Amino acid sequence: MHATSRFTNDVPGGDEGGNLFPLKGTWRNLHAMWDDGCGALSKYNDLRPFGKPKVPLDGAQIESVQDLAKDLMKQYPEKDLQSGQP
């Protein structure tokens, strides 16, 4: 959602990554649903500054996030990243 837009006759300028694709129910639009992991992240999601979780992460969850970050940094080292490249 952060790198795409849907273009239609009704929205010729694009839907701003799902922000202009309204939904009924829990999420106001498709982008909000995506950001919430389709509900999987609801208990951790919050709109407070700096994304403070509604419930504190336990040790295993923190370790899981740290492991994922380490793996991503190994796979995509900063020295190899160039602006404007996918």
Describe the structure.
The protein has 86 residues and is mostly helical. The protein has 2 domains: 1-42, no CATH class; 46-78. 27% of the residues lie in helices and 0% in strands. The chain has 2 helices and no strands. The mean pLDDT is 78.
Give a short overview.
The protein has helices spanning about 30-35, 60-75.
User: How many angstroms separate the termini?
Assistant: 15 Å
Radius of gyration computed on alpha carbons: 17 Å
Task: Classify the beta-strand content into a percent band.
Answer: under 5%
How many separate helices?
A: 2
| Helix content, binned percent | 25-40%
Low-confidence stretches: none
Our count of domains comes out at 2
Total beta strands? 0
Task: Break the fold down into its secondary structure elements and pairings.
Blueprint: H1 30-35, H2 59-75
Keywords summarizing the entry:
86 residues, mainly alpha, 2 helices, 0% strand, flat
